[in-house]
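User: Fold this; tokens only.

Assistant: Input:
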Amino acid sequence: MTPHARHWLATPSLGAWEGLLAARPDLATEPLLAGWAGRGWPVIQRRRHCDDPPDGVPLGLPLPPSHGKRRIAFSLPEAALSNFMPPPRLCNCIAAAPAKWRAAIDALLALDPQTRCFGGLAWQHLTGLPYLSSQSDLDLLWTAKPDLPAFLDQLRRIAAAAPMRIDGEISGPGGAVQWRELAEGAQMLAAKREDEVAVVPRDAWLAGLAA
């Protein structure tokens, strides 16, 4: 992981945030946004789009369900950002998770203590706002393991017994792919990269792990 990568977090400066809101009238009706930077809450880095300014860092911010689950995309200069950090580890988000998720989370951490999370649980942990509902998924991030088939088999067993849907990406040199696509034996994978989503043969993606 590098500081300029999908899912990484950064904190915008108060001045840059106020400038963004002033330049985006469509955000004026979102009451949470006015004090976002002042509270020190982060924004998330996303994949670059063709209409993003080349000298800006592509960023995003999902609002909680009580505010319509709106996904806001924008860019800010790198100089306006600080506190670059990777997405939080799952082990640090336990207190923000529903109690009924605990057994599944414990099993996931036993499988890989380095598991990271994004999505609703991460944002609830980071902000204290109510991002999770009874229908929420658990979104996770892993780095590809040396014994990937065994890892996927155990992950599939945990997901089958979990009370919530477990989604997430496994990252490798060829990009990040959905763990379910790998586990289900898909021969073509959607590999998410920093500036594109490429459909690649499964064998080619797996070969990149051994390179």
